[in-house]
Amino acid sequence: MNRLLIASLDRFGPLREGVRERLSECVLTSETFEAGQVILPAGERSRLRLLARGLAVKQTMLSDGARQIFGVATPGDLIDLAGLFAVTDYEVRALGPCEVRRLDGRELQGLLQDQGSFLAAVCRAVLTEARAHRNGMISLGRRSAAARTANLFCEIYWRQKTLGLAKDDRCAFPAVQGDIADALGLSVVHIHRVLRALRDDGLAVVKNGGLQILDWDRLAALGDFDPQAFRPQTDPEVEPPVKPAPSRGRRS
User: Fold this and answer.
1) CATH number at residue 7
2) C-beta atoms surrounding 132 within 10 Å
3) How far apart are the C-alpha atoms of 225 and 229, rounded to whole Å?
4) Considering its fold, how many domains does the chain have in total?
5) Which of 99, 87, 122, 121 is nearest to 51 (CA)?
6) What is the C-alpha separation between 155 and 148, in angstroms, rounded?
7) Is the pTM of this model over 0.85?
8) 8 Å CB contact between 107 and 8
9) Is residue 73 one of the residues assigned to a domain?
10) Is 30 contained in some domain?
11) 3-state secondary structure the chain
């Protein structure tokens, strides 16, 4: 059960052998959630919760009942990094059936205090998450409705493809139009029009809990998609940083 946690953290490492051994001995608690259930309520401390199966969204609920989704979690993601040294100010909700594994709070604090490479890996995981969030901010502020939708779809597909979870240009995406609208700052009516246009233009289709990519190159160009925004950051002294892809400019 601990192999997925070790592999997830090692992406931001490398972890030292002593850390891997200690993580392999830690007890992880497994929980399952159905679609729509809250996995992590706001105000919780981190337990290093790992999404082992399914897709989930990070969201903030406003006082008037409105919602802003600002992140989609895929298997292997640590979903409560914001609560490491404070408490989370957002909640995580299951898009479909999910499995989450979490570490005991005392074991987590011990690892943070005693293991430097573990702390460094967690910090780089936080930085990687922040970089993905900045991409979302760019979409909300500067991309057209079609471009921000294309960028999101490329992210969803690319991240699952890197995990071997996408097949035949398809991946899981059990989101309704309201979820997509709340992630992109658009109305449901507007999203309906954009999804229809993407389908009619032969770019992508969302149907029956899945996302099908019809033309990756055109979709990525429309969304100005850069996979560097989602690749795990690593120790620059161990692995040279990859230069970001040149911007192709704004697309409509």
Assistant:
1) 2.60.120.10
2) 16
3) 9
4) 1
5) 99
6) 11
7) yes
8) no
9) yes
10) yes
11) CCHHHHHHHHCCCCCCHHHHHHHHHCCEEEEEECCCCEEECCCCCCCCCEEEECCEEEEEECCCCCEEEEEEECCCCECCHHHCCCCCCCEEEECCCEEEEEECHHHHHHHHHHCHHHHHHHHHHHHHHHHHHHHHHHHHHHCCHHHHHHHHHHHHHHHHHHCCCCECCEEECCCCHHHHHHHHCCCHHHHHHHHHHHHHCCCEEEECCEEEECCHHHHHHHHCCCHHHCCCCCCCCCCCCCCCCCCCCCCC
Quote the tokens at residue 9. Answer: 């953290």
Domain for residue 12, yes or no? yes
User: What token pair was written down for 25?
Assistant: 């001995």
**Token digits for 197?**
């246009």
Query: Residue 41 is part of which domain span?
Result: 3-128
In a domain, 202, yes or no: no
Per-residue pLDDT of the chain (252 residues; tens, 9 = 90+): 689 999 999 999 889 989 999 999 999 999 999 999 999 999 999 999 999 999 999 999 999 999 999 999 999 999 999 999 999 999 999 999 999 999 999 999 999 999 999 999 999 999 999 999 999 999 999 999 999 999 999 999 999 999 999 999 999 999 999 999 999 999 999 999 999 999 999 999 999 999 999 999 999 999 999 999 999 998 777 654 454 554 444 443
